[in-house]
Design brief:
The structure is a single chain. The chain is built from two helices and four strands, in the order E-H-E-E-H-E. By secondary structure, the protein is an alpha+beta fold. It has a single domain, classed as 2-Layer Sandwich (Alpha-Beta Plaits). Strands 2-3-1-4 form a four-stranded antiparallel beta sheet, with helices on one face.
Length: 87
């Protein structure tokens, strides 16, 4: 398994939350190879970890992430990592 780790800066929390619930989560959870997704926040930052069955599936999603980012957040980083262990 591989995870896509995304970091953002939140400029408008209410708008960002609405976009996350109504656009990002539905699109991501329907993508091929999706296993699980977690979206977290602290103060004005967000970090998500979206797990996929394969590295290819994870990399495919990274190409679509910039188009899913609304004006209410700034995309700070996207990284694909191998899942070493899960519980």
């Amino acid at each position: 398994m591989h995870a896509v780790v995304v970091t953002v800066t939140i400029k408008d929390r209410e708008a960002a939350d609405e976009h996350l619930r109504n656009v990002v989560v539905p699109r991501v959870s329907q993508s091929p190879g999706f296993v699980a997704g977690y979206w977290t926040r602290k103060d004005n930052t967000g970090l998500s970890m979206i797990v996929y069955e394969s590295e290819d599936a994870a990399k495919a999603v990274t190409e679509r992430i910039p188009e899913m980012v609304p004006e209410s957040v700034t995309l700070d980083g996207v990284d694909v990592r191998e899942v070493a262990v899960s519980a």
